[in-house]
Specification:
4 strands, 3 domains, Arc Repressor Mutant, subunit A, two-stranded antiparallel ribbon, single chain, globular, mainly alpha, BrxA_sf, about 270 residues, about 5% strand
Length: about 270
């Protein structure tokens, strides 16, 4: 069954240069380590360095791998806006939020922070997902990356064909670890259900990024809800009735923003649910 495609509008964030963080994040053995480490990093990088690198409380084999993990955390999941990092820490530390929801939140955060991950998601993962494709072939990810890199001289001169192949493989592994794909040799799309509570968290991120005056129906965040365009308005109406969001719909434009601040959103959504 064909799902509806979305237009895309860039997030107003100064993204760093393209990098291969997909390889490092895809190599992390257990994403619960990210959930545990990220609030510590946001609070005190020196404390995490002591726990992670020196004392090896996360049981990573070599000091080099521990340092790579810490650097990847900072690059992939720490934002330039402190309020976003504060909100992330609250989500990761909350006992009210299940682990699968936290991992979907990490998918959103990595999409915001990493240019290459965002591009592959937009042009391959979500394109195929909303077309109703059953599988996401590694060859198609590689083909997109090759074409994309050929238009970026700074990448073309640095990344070999083997590097591209590795990024494509780690990309698929990453999505499998995030419960968005399944299978070993062939990767199939999982059926993804985003709860009302998690959608409210997405809209809070959207608001912290200053996107509330954009038309949500044409924004890239719309695709991140994993539902058809026609279903978005109904879901937002439901959230609006619970006073979780504020919305304004004119027939072809939908503006939406969070009704919470960082301090009251977890209690306001999850403990009243």
């Amino acid at each position: 069954m064909k799902r509806n495609l979305f237009f895309s509008k860039d997030i107003n964030k100064t993204l760093v240069k393209y990098n291969s963080d997909i390889n490092i994040v895809g190599s992390i053995p257990d994403y619960h380590l990210i959930i545990k480490a990220l609030p510590i990093l946001n609070r005190d990088a020196d404390e995490l360095y002591k726990i992670l690198v020196k004392e090896n409380e996360f049981n990573l084999r070599t000091e080099k791998s521990r340092k790579r993990f810490m650097n990847a955390l900072s690059s992939a999941f720490v934002h330039e806006e402190r309020e976003i990092n504060d909100f992330t820490s609250r989500v990761m530390e909350s006992d009210e939020i299940d682990q699968d929801s936290k991992i979907i939140f990490l998918f959103w955060l990595f999409s915001i922070n990493n240019r290459l991950f965002k591009e592959v998601n937009k042009h391959v993962f979500f394109k195929y997902y909303y077309m109703g494709r059953a599988e996401l072939p590694a060859a198609d990810v590689q083909a997109f990356l090759k074409d994309f890199i050929s238009t970026k001289p700074e990448l073309k001169s640095q990344w070999s064909e083997e590097t591209v192949k590795t990024i494509a493989s780690k990309y698929l592994t990453l999505l499998k670890k995030m419960n968005l794909l399944e299978g070993s040799r062939k990767k199939s799309f999982c059926f993804v259900t985003i709860s009302d509570e998690l959608i409210a968290c997405l809209i809070h991120l959207y608001t912290l990024l200053g996107q509330q005056n954009s038309n949500f129906l044409e924004h890239e965040f719309a695709s991140w809800m994993f539902i058809s365009k026609e279903s978005i308005l109904e879901r937002f109406k439901r959230l609006g009735k619970r006073d979780w969001i504020k919305m304004h719909y004119t027939g072809d434009s939908l503006k939406v923003e969070s009704n919470f601040n960082n301090k009251n959103i977890i209690d306001g959504i999850f403990r009243r649910s």
